[in-house]
Amino acid sequence: MHHQCDCSRRFRVVIGRASDYKRAKKLLWVGNHPTYVGPNMLKRHARNGGLLIFQVDDKDAAVAVVNPRLNVILVLNVHPNHRGHGLGSAIMRFLRPSWVRSISEFVQWFERQGYVVVSDPKQGRRYETRLMVRQELLTLAGRIAKLYEETLKEKQTDGTQGA
Questions:
Q1: Contact 149/130 with Cβ under 8 angstroms?
Q2: Three-class SS state of 158
Q3: DSSP string across 82-101
Q4: Would you give the distance in Å from CA 143 to the centre of its chain?
Q5: What is the distance between the alpha carbons of residues 130 and 101, in angstroms, rounded to a whole number?
Q6: pLDDT (tens digit per residue) in 127-138
Q7: How far apart are CA 95 and CA 121, in angstroms?
Q8: Which of 98, 107, 108, 112 has its C-alpha lying 20 to 30 A from 83's C-alpha?
Q9: C-alpha angle with apex 113: 106 to 90, nearest 5 degrees?
Q10: pTM as predicted
């Protein structure tokens, strides 16, 4: 029987510092993260507030690297002891990034989180990646485009010039 913990409901978030490189790297290594995440990337994003460590019972349980300015998640890795408990999904709901850069083999997982692929595959050094966007943003973009078109039509029928 697989032990189910309630980590998805009781994690806490710690903003990592540039000096937390080894701590983050340990989580990536234990979690067998498939891509190389080097010290420069981790330290750069830590300086931007984008290195996040998720803890359960004061123990590191997951790590995420985000670009807060672009609202994109670049790395997410959950410790094997907490996989399948909903922690990754809870982290995605907590972060709510607009964009995800995903390795192709994890696209389906991100689709279950509400993201859709919006790019052709991009071949990296070892893995193919896809750019994904939160589905509701596509809906919003469609609503804005429709509103803009309607506004232009109204201006044309009023005899005023379009913007």
A1: no
A2: helix
A3: GTTTTHHHHHHHHH--SEEE
A4: 24
A5: 6
A6: 888 999 999 888
A7: 24
A8: 98
A9: 105
A10: 0.80
